[in-house]
Amino acid sequence: MRLEVTRRTDLATRALIALATSGRRHKASELADVLDASPGFLSQAMTPIVNQGWVRSEPGRTGGYTAVASLDDLSVLDVVEAVEGPTDVTRCVLEDRPCAGGQRCALHDAWAQARSHLLRDLAATPLSAVAHTAP
Fold it and tell me: Helix (H, G, I), strand (E, B), or coil: what is residue 48?
């Protein structure tokens, strides 16, 4: 796991927050405007959270996106993993090789502990706790 969040994850997070706090359906173009994103990029960010069942996507002229999950029920880690994929807890801090067997890198133990703390904190942070920082 890299210690960064992609623009796609940020957009998915902000979209979930915007939809949940408004409590209503938003057309894709309207939501893209609110989030200052292109409709195409918004669609890419929405696909994983729609697939998770957190947002309902209704096609057609009267369709749009509607939040169906509570921000209290979703963690920051839930969204990161939905968009980025499962967290790789076996990967070494050195990206060119995994630590294996007795050949662990000098940072292995410190990195494993830091990663464990980060994942625990992200899993314990509900989206509702970060909603005030999203536009």
Answer: helix
pTM of the model: 0.84
CA-CA-CA-CA dihedral for 124, 126, 127, 128, to nearest 10: -150
- Contact (CB, 8 A) for 81 and 123: no
| C-alpha–C-alpha distance, residues 11 and 94, integer Å | 28
Which tokens sit at 109? 């133990």
- Give the up-direction half-sphere exposure of residue 7: CA atoms within 13 A in the CB hemisphere: 8
**pLDDT tens-place values along the chain, 135 residues long:** 455 689 999 999 999 999 999 999 999 999 999 999 999 999 999 999 999 999 999 988 888 999 999 999 999 999 999 998 888 666 676 665 666 666 777 777 888 888 889 999 999 999 999 987 655
Q: Which two tokens stand for residue 38?
A: 């292109």
DSSP helix/strand/coil, 102? coil
User: Which of 79, 8, 76, 7 lies closest to 49 in space, CA to CA?
Assistant: 79
Residue located via tokens 């729609």? 50
